[in-house]
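User: Predict the structure for this protein chain, please.
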Amino acid sequence: MADLIFRTGTMDAGKSTLALQTNHNHAARGRRGRLFTSHDRAGTAMVSSRLGLVADAEEVGPELDFWRYTVDALTQGARIDYFICDEAQFYTAEQIDQLAKVVDELQIDVFCFGILTDFRTRLFPGAARDRKSTRLNSSHRCISYAVFCLKKK
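Assistant: Here is the predicted structure, written as structure tokens:
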């Protein structure tokens, strides 16, 4: 059974580092994945951490249809075991639904990383969809985690 996992935390909590670590750990076990991001600090189509780790990724714009992308890749013979979705707060509600469909119908694990709210404490569209969707919240395959950053004083 595949999972949709959304890991959240504040800015500078290490979410992108964790995304890159997750990708490395799965790839080291022979799994094949795809990295996605939106508005990364290093530029277009890159996942980067403040520690200096960088990986190429697919840039997610509002036009990207995750379901169509996945079905097309699988139809062409690609193997996809998981998705790493960094900066998921910038994804649209429809894209979060598409990722849930990928998990439910194609049994591909999806690991999302992002912050929940903007500076006004309003939920970002991608984060709001994870929180408000009856389908996502009622599914045993959707798990949310918080990533905390402890600083030495």
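Residues 42 and 143 are 28 Å apart (CA to CA).
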